[in-house]
Amino acid sequence: MARVCALLSGGKDSNYALYLSLARGDEVVCILAVKPRRRDSWMFHTAALEAPRLQAEAMGLSHAYREAVVSGVREREVEELKAVLTRLRSETGFDTIVLGGIASRYQLERARMLARHVAAGVYAPIWGVDPEEHLLNLVRNGFKFVISRASTMGLGAEYVGRVFDEDLAREVIALSRRYGFNPAFEGGEAETLVLDAPHYRMGLCVRGRVARLPGGVYELVVEGMRLCSEARVELEQA
């Protein structure tokens, strides 16, 4: 059994990796949400950054929750995280970093570098999975999530804030084949927000609106977020 520090963005992949870590019996001593100051971070999630704190609470792991603010500048943000992880390694005694990466070698290599810096290992349980099967498996395993930001051709405003089921997953897979984007969004085509999962005791209720940003980007602007018994998204009508 490992003592893990899980990097939690609020999205589907970091949540699924943490779920798999718990399923194999790991002890979660640290949940780290990294918050970039810039929206073009290469390494970290930038949408709906309010979510990880509530997700940790939904898991019953509020005591393990930590936050780190970084510049969001490529490479500098990774260097900035070294000091944070060094402190957390001393405070919590974690020996493994949990990573939700699927195909980004950039993220994996830098996570390994950070882990070496603090003499820890890396657990990346969904690295290399088939992205189409991964999207379907999330739904089949009881994960409820939405697209919180879409930034690729084929994913318009109508896909932001919709809770995924198998039909929507297959629709997105079909769009990915047509437009050539990664269906698991590993290339930054979209970001996601998990509302509920098998390891949650409660769900997240989100109130917000869909905004169009420059460059054909659509984003779920969160007006309110709280824990609730039945996860849902309430979108204001334009």
UniProtKB/TrEMBL annotation:
Gene3D superfamilies: HUPs (3.40.50.620), putative n-type atp pyrophosphatase, domain 2 (3.90.1490.10). InterPro entries: Diphthami_syn_dom, DPH6/MJ0570, MJ0570_ATP-bd, Rossmann-like_a/b/a_fold. Transmembrane segments: none annotated. Coiled coil: none annotated. One of its GO terms (molecular function) is diphthine-ammonia ligase activity. GO terms for biological process: protein histidyl modification to diphthamide. It holds the Pfam family Diphthami_syn_2. Residues 3-206 form the Diphthamide synthase domain. This is Diphthamide synthase domain-containing protein.
